[in-house]
Automatic annotation (TrEMBL):
<protein>
    <recommendedName>
        <fullName>Heme-binding protein</fullName>
    </recommendedName>
</protein>
<dbReference type="InterPro" id="IPR005624">
    <property type="entry name" value="PduO/GlcC-like"/>
</dbReference>
<dbReference type="InterPro" id="IPR038084">
    <property type="entry name" value="PduO/GlcC-like_sf"/>
</dbReference>
<dbReference type="InterPro" id="IPR052517">
    <property type="entry name" value="GlcG_carb_metab_protein"/>
</dbReference>
<dbReference type="Pfam" id="PF03928">
    <property type="entry name" value="HbpS-like"/>
</dbReference>
């Protein structure tokens, strides 16, 4: 049985994700933090603007981590953690707690999960749009 290798998320990819999300946010007049993780959850790129709310850096990291762990945009997971939802009892005893607020988006290549981007600092819908724009720039 042979498997085809899929190129991992590179530093150059991560820099493009950060630059694209930042540019989209600046065009909307929003200051954000952006985090990019590889498939193993390792930090590849991070940007926090001094004008951003201090916690936006941790928020962007946790959004990226959640999108990576669950292989889904965090915007799609909000209802899943409500009482009766699919992940209502999901334990949070992971390396870092999951964050179910829009703004985390997994990154795929050839159908395989290779990382995630998280954006924090704007309204959740804005952060989701900035993260989605970044991922689309890799396509």
């Amino acid at each position: 049985m042979s498997t085809t290798a899929v190129a991992p998320l590179t530093t150059e990819d991560a820099e493009l994700l950060v630059a694209t999300a930042r540019r989209a946010a600046e065009e909307a007049g929003v200051t954000v933090s952006v985090t990019v993780l590889d498939a193993g959850g390792h930090l590849l790129a991070f940007r926090r603007d001094d004008r951003a709310v201090l916690i936006s850096g941790e928020t962007s990291t946790r959004k990226a981590y959640t999108a990576l762990q669950l292989n889904a945009p965090t915007a799609d997971l909000v209802d899943a953690v409500q009482p009766g939802g699919l992940f209502h009892t999901l334990p949070t005893a992971l390396d870092r707690p999951l964050l179910f607020i829009a703004g985390g988006v997994p990154v795929h290549r050839e159908g395989r999960l290779i990382g995630a981007v998280g954006v924090g600092g704007g309204a959740p819908e804005q952060d989701h749009g900035f993260a989605t724009a970044a991922v689309q720039a890799l396509a």
